[in-house]
Amino acid sequence: MALSSFDIDAPRWDQSTFMGRLKYFFSVTDCRTALLPDSRLDEAKALVESCRAGSIPPGTTEEQLYFAKKLYDSAFHPDTGDRMNLIGRMSFQVPGGMAITGAMLQFYKTVPAVVFWQWVNQSFNALVNYTNRNAASPITPKQIGIAYATATSTALATAVGLNLYTKKAPPLVARWVPFAAVAAANCVNIPMMRQQEILNGIAVTDENGNKLGHSTKAAVKGITQVVVSRITMAAPGMKLLIQLSSFFSAQITFLHAPIQVMMVGMFLVFMVPAACSLFPQRCSIAVSKLEPELRDSIVSQCGDSVQYVYFNKGL
Fold it and tell me: What Pfam families does the database record attribute to this sequence (predicted)?
């Protein structure tokens, strides 16, 4: 392929299959990209934009273009093209998740500790949810503040309430409560941080990217898929980690904390890309399932030529 005709936005792997999406997300969630300075990321963005404009610098190789696109996708929002904050990037999920999950498992001894670490965890989740939202839906600083307060407080109350239940729950039930708390908190935190999408709808387009309107049903579908992905991301660590770490460190108590942190990282290295790959990021919904007003508008504009609309569901 001549680099002059290189389409940098064409998927390197087939995004219609789980394995294709898995390869893609293994690339863009690579935690090593989180260590790169902003100047290096800006260079990658400049190269991507040059390629889009049909002006590739002489001597640039195909692998350099692919690597630039990897950095671009890992650090810049697909809707706005703006550089995302470091902590909210999916490439930061492994180190961030290691630190917070390890601390939560290690210091869940008292009610204040449970409350504090759940607040840290839900604040981290809120930032990730905000960073990876559908940014085509505008949101004001006041709305961000209200969303953060409602998301963290309700998720915190849900998680703490369920975790405190473990003290009086039967042993079999108690083993499931920490995971249930995380799952329930995700079901609250994500919709709350992205509530403007549910209230006002998200932009939907035709196959060629032409905007057709805003849909609340599309927002609900996208956010539901994100909730499922996040719960899947947490499941192996929450269910298997406690048992495995206890097995390996039962006789060496001083290694309990580092073993837990290391194993959280091992789970997340695989589960972050795997969970992100469950559903296509460019989601679709049938025109027949949209709100009647939007459906009628699309039919009046396009007739029967548009059967599905597309939108960025976020991560």
Answer: SFXNs
In this structure, how many other beta carbons lie within 10 angstroms of the beta carbon of residue 39?
Answer: 7
Q: How many CB atoms lie within 10 A of CB 237?
A: 25
> Token match 């990037």: residue?
89
Q: Which two tokens stand for residue 216?
A: 């609340």
The ranges assigned to domains in the chain are 3-83, 90-312
- Cα→Cα distances 149→10, 126, 131, Å: 39, 10, 16
Q: Which residues of 3-37 are buried (b: 16+ CB within 10 A; e: fewer)?
A: eeebebeeeeeeeeeeebbbbbbbbbbbbebbeee
The set of residues, in sequence order, having a beta carbon less than 8 Å from that of 228 and lying 6+ positions away, is 278, 279
Asked whether 151 and 188 are in contact (CB, 8 A), the reply is: yes
Backbone φ, ψ for residue 207 (5° rounding): -60, -25
Looking at residues 240-251, what average pLDDT do you find?
Answer: 58
Length reported for the chain = 315
Rg (CA), the chain: 21
Q: pTM of the prediction?
A: 0.82
- What is the crossing angle of helices 256-276 and 93-106, to 10°? 140
Smallest CA-to-CA distance from 65 within 79, 85, 76, 49 is with 49
